[in-house]
Amino acid sequence: MTDFSFQLYSARNFPPLSDTLAMLSRLGYRQVEGFGGVYDDPVAVKADLDANGLTMPTGHFGLDQLRDKAGTLAIARALGVETIICPFVPQERWKQRDAEWVNFARELGDLAKTYRDEGFGFAWHNHHFEFWPLDSGRRPMEIILTEAPEADWEMDVAWVVRGDDDPKRWIDDHGDRIVAVHLKDIAPEGEAADEDGWADLGHGTVSWKDLFAAIKAKTPAKYFVMEHDNPNDLERFASRSIAAAKTL
Prior knowledge:
single chain; eight-stranded parallel sheet; two-stranded antiparallel sheet; 10 strands
């Protein structure tokens, strides 16, 4: 049976965190995924996780955090994180040139090696911009996978779709690198404008039944993380999404 996780970034506008954790536990979640906004007091957060029967096996750490290796290691160990994930680069770097992407990917690979040597998994989490062709025709995601072989991939499937690419193709070609997956959905065109066009899992346009089958068959992914970048009703999103996930 799959233990479904929940990216706590989805709940950033619905404090306090302790109430969110209690709700997630009640709905049947067993894992959460951290992000920078919940790391201020990792000891207290770990106690709250324990009290609600939750673990945090994955956590997002921004590039500046990752460069502070001692700080990131301390947070990850305190929270029981197993796989450290770099979630993005700033928007001003989305359209950087090939050579700049190569340099970034090589730094990512160096960071991956550092954290792997300390006993952690390490992965990159995508958005849409990694699938926009560069002047050379290459895509940033190809560069990251090629130039940072030490880094695995947390595939955010809906962002691949928003990047005008086919997630099934990437699963077929690079499934061995996918260790975690974000389960999110896209609202039909013109709907959910107040939620930035995202939808609860199973209530949007992403062909999740087929994609989830491909992920299970072709990847070693063991973390399946619900995310919605801007829900206007947190419990609605969390409850409908885990219900849909259990049918995949």
